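Forwarding the complex inputs:
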Amino acid sequence: MSWLYAPSRSRGAALAAMVGVLAITVLAAGCATKKNADTNGAPGAAGGVAVGPGVTDKVIKLGVLTDRTGPFAGAGIAAEQGRLLYWDKKNAAGGICGRQVQFVVKDHGYNPQKAVTAYSQMEGEVLALDELLGSPEIAALLPSLQSNQMLTMAASWSSALLSNPYVVISGTTYDIEMINGIEWLLQQKRLATGDKIGHIFVEGDYGENAVAGSRAAAKALGLQLVEQKVKATDTDLTGQITALRSADVKAVLLTTTPPQTASAVGVAEAAKFTPAFLASNPAFSPQLLNTAAGAALEKRLLVATSTAPFSSTAPGPSQVRSAFEAKYAGQPKSSYVMYGYAQGEIMARILDTACRANTLTRPGLLTAFQSLANVQTDGLVAPLDYSKSGRTPARQIYLARPDSAAAGGLTQIQDLFATPLASSYQPTG
Amino acid sequence: MPDSRSALGVADSAPVAPARSAVAASRPNPRRPVTIVAVLAAVLVALAIPLYADRFWLQLGLFAFASTVAALGLTLLLGQAGQLSFGHPFFVAVGAYGYTVLASRPSTAGAGHRLGLALPPAVAAIAAVLLAGVAGLLFSPIAARLRGIYLGIASLGLVFVGQHILFNAETLTGASNGRGVPAFALPGFRFDTSSQETLYVFGVPFGREEKLWYLGLAVTVAAYLCARNLIHSRPGRSLRAVRDRELMAGIMGVPVTRYKAYAFALSSMYAGLGGVLTALAFGRIVPDTFGLDLAVQYLVIVVIGGLGSPAGAVAGALFVTGLPAVLDRYAAALPGLAPEGSPGVISPAVAAQLTFGITVIILLLFEPGGVTAVGRRLRRGADRALVRARRS
Amino acid sequence: MRLFLELIVSGLSLGAVYALLALGFVMVFKASGVVNFAHPALLMIGAYTTARLAADGHVPFVVAILAGVGLAAVAALVVQRLLVYPMASRSAITVSVMTIGVNLVIQTEIIRRLGVDILPMRDPWGARVLTVAGVHIPQTRAAALVVGVALIGAFFVWFKFSIWGIAMRAVADDPETAALMGIRRARVSALAWTLAGALAAVAGLFLTVYPTSGVAPASAAAALRAFPAAIIGGLDSTGGAIAGGLIVGVAEVLTQGYAHDLTFLGQGFDTVMPYAVMVAVLLVRPSGLFGTQELHRA
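Prediction (whole assembly, three chains):
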């Protein structure tokens, strides 16, 4: 047993050393007794506009709490690129209310504890959160967002977040994406009543929310649902596809990470199992077209998304494309770039509306946000309606197909639409 | 307490230099006044921190308190009883979710059916700790059969099974969306930011973090003193006997299996208490928190701090909880780093994480005894300085 | 029945890969007494190097895989020489925790370099499927089985008959006598680490080809299967590591395949199953299937 440990002693000096470190750290943190100001935006005024935390008469600071070192670091960086593309342009054109918009970026590494700690640091410095990425992190911070009145653009399309009025979702929720897709397949006669459909979904809010939609659709449309839950770190979906094949499903929904999507479609193709494949919007990334499953993906996969594909010819996406080429030529074009740009558009709308009402405060932002009944983004995202708190802001989706010839890897095959069930569906609970 | 220790003259917290304490007993300890002053200073600083520190430091401190309490349990289990357990996050989760379920009101609205017993928070906290202890007792027969690294990895299995349950038992845990943690309250006092009236202490508004700081501090100090007491007591010696020479300890009359079970139960109770503090620090707990990363984190804490040493658990928790957060906060000031958002170059967050990993490696490479061994070196240096000062 | 056979074959081939990981893990444990938390990092070094080199198609696959294996082996050797060997007199748990730091540093760097990319391996087997007696098995899995068996077989022959193999066994059995006989423990340890790195890289290859989609940050998590596999087999038994790997592979794939019938266990149980099997084995045999029961001397 002795190999396990080396005995060591502790005495007061160790405590003293620790205290010394503690004291120095606290002193270094700023010795002045902290300010009495109520951090929820004791309204100051700067140039006739009521201002909240993070706002001076030259600058508006927004927070970004994202993943830079964990499993979604790539998505986080791509969204950053999109965000910078938008705000560089907007800041150059004068910014918001005559102020430049700046960002305080913190990494949580997909660890909820780090997220809570980082949030507590930036909470007093920023007016709103321009991005909060990661379902567990969002879940852990929900009560704080509410008590701090912090408007937050969540990098998630889960309808479970709608109950918090401060969360901004930039598109159609996962459950409605799936409902739209399933009903479309029925309309296209690729499915018939009584058929079985499979849904492979990742553990967590992302997967659970999507499967809630497919459950509702299956029940309402007379289909049988076969569910397969996976962990986000699973890389080989042979077992799941094998099981779905023996259940003889006619369609497979994929609410998975991009590597898992490629694995599932590749395995099915090799086994000559050819159901219709429909993916939630985060389940695809253009890098998949470089993998061995690339050809199968082009042939079999459909992606449901409310953010326009990178290659879309609508004015909004075209602008992003040219800006991206100018600034980031040669770099991978992830779909999150479009998302980041759309984020910028939406946040700018909210800020501009608040500016016109002379209230760049947190309550002011909430009021501005809830007044936006029709946010149009030049075809970047489906039209968004934020005026009904607790309801999904959009119900339409694009359908896109992986295409190695298209910029960003996706070609639109169906313009924005919402099926009857999707238009009337209300998430329960 | 120092008197009884030196009076014993035998190996106390570890079989190292029993002669030293005998010698120490025979002449006045030159360090005594310094130690007392240091401890007093520590107490004063700790009490005053909420008046000066902003929310970031307070939140970090809450997490550090929670980690410390849990780590105290693990260092007792590993360092004193010699049982390697990676299963600590499981018992932390029992404490955290136990408190949450026991203290929450049941609900059927909105998010679906949620169980809750609506007990007073103080009662719920104690019950959660006891629940964790019971869980530890239940696992201890398995623990008694296994040795060394086998116990370690088997208990890791407990963590994975536990997380699986947390993700699936929606009515209890809220599954992946997590569950809100009811604010702690003692009769007449809520540890919460009240919207009606604000408590002012020396002119500083006290919100949830400030109030919880004192709770965390009190609980941590109590847990620390308990751990130290245990180490210097008869059960502590029995545990060490079981750790070092199990057969001999059995022959000498130590009920080996029972003591091993007690050690596991006690360490689980510490973990449960740490879990309650974790839940309170978060405000809303999600299952992702209680996984492999946390198990690795606790192991790093007790080894970096110094095995078997309560002060080591404190120092280790400060190091492992605090250093990454501090690095993250100030990394942007390091020269030569690209701003966040440029792919393929080293961003401040990446630099912070690399620095932490390298620090762990270097610390263990050059001082495997951990932070307490560094403290010992400092103390020896201080001793020599004092002796020289007396001579001159 | 066909489903069951396919799952068994798939499980065995996956198990062969896990066996390679477990074998390296056990070798390091036997030679240095260290629980190597940096095993996932070694796997990623091998897989990432191979994928990056093979990516643009200029470097032939064989060269790329040799480079990956070589680099992982060298990295393991460097860790042993620079970090583990100087700490030889320290407690094993301290060294083990030090490998946690090594794992963090290496993985952070590789994830940074990966970015958004998912790197395919450009292996010669692709997504082709063999059909043997009506059972479909991917060529990559068949190759994994063949290569795994070959490597394991070669390893055992070497272990039993070569000088270095005997030296390794001697050091594991009785370090003091081995030292008295002139066997340098440090050299044996270095060899063990180097082999572990190489094996991890080979395992990494087979864990990132079809049916997975390539090297991505999530690829490292597969290396964690080595832990229960090594324990099930018995942490000081190289033969046990093989058995453990196969058991874990089969258990995982069977649970995946029959997940629909196992929903009472909660969905997604397949990642937990190896640990459940491990606890079951340990209850019956506390030192693993083939591990030596520890003698407890007073």
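Chain C touches chain B through 50 residues (CB under 8 Å).
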